[in-house]
Amino acid sequence: MKKARLLIALLVMLVAASGYAQDSYRDAIKEYLSFFGKNIQMENSLREINGIVFMQNDKVDLEMLTERYIHEVYEDQMADVVEPMMKERDVTEADLKTITAMATTPEGQTYLAHENEWNEKLSEVSGEYMSQLLEGGKPEKLQVNPDIDAVYAAKFQKLWKDCGIEEKTIRILDGAFTGATSSAGKLKTFTDNIGTMALNAAYGSMTLEDFDFGMKLYSNESFRKATDTSDMNFYSLMGKGALIVMKYLDWMESQGAQPNEKLQSFKMLKSLMESKSNSYVEDE
Hints:
By secondary structure, this protein is mostly helical. It starts with a helix and ends with a helix. It has helices at 2-16, 26-36, 40-53, 62-86, 93-103, 106-134, 150-162, 165-177, 183-202, 208-218, 221-226, 234-254, 263-283. Helix 1 packs antiparallel against helix 6 (106-134), helix 6 (106-134) packs across helix 10 (208-218) and helix 7 (150-162) crosses helix 9. The model is unreliable at 16-22 (pLDDT under 50). The longest helix has 29 residues, at 106-134. 36% of the residues are buried.
């Protein structure tokens, strides 16, 4: 389940942080990433990775190192990764400033905080559900939380469906099932239930006012350009995610964290994602 949760977290992180900056845009992209590039799932995933690939000892405090990375290093490294990925989107410095101006409003700050809670819950439940499917399980069809009223559900659907979040999520995750036995059936099962997962996860975190702001944000041309992933597939997105993780692991090693044998698996994952991504581009 942890692997699937990490997968979802990386996807959420990358979709949210899709923007670019040339040298003169560096400050603008870092400001943008300070709002849209960090999230609870990402931080929790880094901490989970620590326990998988590094050895705990009295010489190095892994938790403290991770905190330093998040506050001192992450934005620069993320900017390095997203710049070459997003240059073709024609996102300008003015676009980035328009988005961050929306994020700094009281409504924007509340929305981002609540969206973070929503994404964290959705990451956990969808990761668990995906794990069951990929491992051959047959999870039951999910039911909408009976406490959710019709007004809330209708507002949610406007954000989830009309703003394209559902379509983007399903299109990218489609690649996770490619090559698996009965992949079409697994994808349909996941697709049939992801909307219910998202709605149930939003309840208790996202408000009606959040949905209104979200629709305003997603209808903004600058934001749509910055978060457009139509030019990417599952493997290219995961390849970028693996690159971000490897930059983190390399930094941790440089600060004295002691790797175990599982670190090689992460390096192999990065190579696999890059290979699949290049293959996809060639096929196009």
